[in-house]
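DM from R.C. (forwarded with permission)

"hey, sorry to bug you on a friday — could you get me a structure for this? deadline for the figure draft is monday and I only need the backbone to look sensible"
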Amino acid sequence: MRNTPVRLLLATALTGVSSLAAAQGATTAICYNCPPEWADWGAQLELIEEKTGIQVPQDNKNSGQSLAQLVAEAQSPVADVVYYGVTFGIQAMEDDVVEPYQPEHWDEIPEGLKDPEGNWFAIHSGTLGFMVNVDALDGAPVPTSWEDLLDPAYRGMIGYLDPASAFVGYVGATAVNLALGGDLEDFTPAIDYFNALADNDPIVPKQTSYARVLSGEIPILLDYDFNAYRARYSDGANVEFVIPEEGSIVVPYVMSLVKNGPHSDNGREVLDFVLSDEGQAVWADAYLRPVREEAISDEARQVFLPDSDYARASAVDYAAMAQAQREFSERYLSEVR
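My reply, with the result:
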């Protein structure tokens, strides 16, 4: 070893470092907005690694933060894939930070739930309603309507994610707006509602707040059915899910391949997997409605509210919803107390 030239040793060391970096890169895919407590991404990421060998680190960004990061990093992308609400997927396509990819099972994704070129596509959907920790209501009845939430009996008990940042927050704003007579060109009913709700001292976090509902810190959260069912049937919490009497909406969550991502091949494999039978079964077992309906087991179907309740929730024009989002966010930030 003493006679080995220094330059050869250095070259050998650098080769080892390069090989290690290559090996790490070969087994990695970076996903923005894959938080383990949301939609059981934790189980999905573990299964991806088990079945494909690709490690996907957990990431706790929300949809808005993910899109902002993609735009900021457009010249030197960090992420390979991204998960977000459908309106953010449409915006990402318009901002040219994602690229087309048609994953396996592409033909099984219904029209309207995918960009025709593959810039975004649905993997599952959720219905917006009230996730209610019954034990934390201090004797108040479970609310059944948007109007109920304005009752002073619920002061300090209501939470909703920031609708100017988190997609589920914008979904809640869209749902209440349509339920109270607004449309996707006029969000005045939603702005008025949030100002009225301000009298009840709502809690407005920017990140997913599942654990805060289970702890009772937020007794009532505007959230999706799948989180409420998970709390009730997996975590054993006394949680009910309510689709408000005035109506609500159903919204798909989508994924995209990031444009020029550093591990694009791994990213494509991840996107293939989440639409596979095994990947879709994770969503179904987490009480979501997979985009491939046949992946929902009979056991999973039994936990959902009756179809008569779901009849109060409808699909919307998601492209129009996306176009309205930025203007709504500006109004919310400037007009809501």
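R.C.: lifesaver. The two ends are 72 Å apart (CA to CA).
me: no worries. The chain is about 40% helix and 15% strand.
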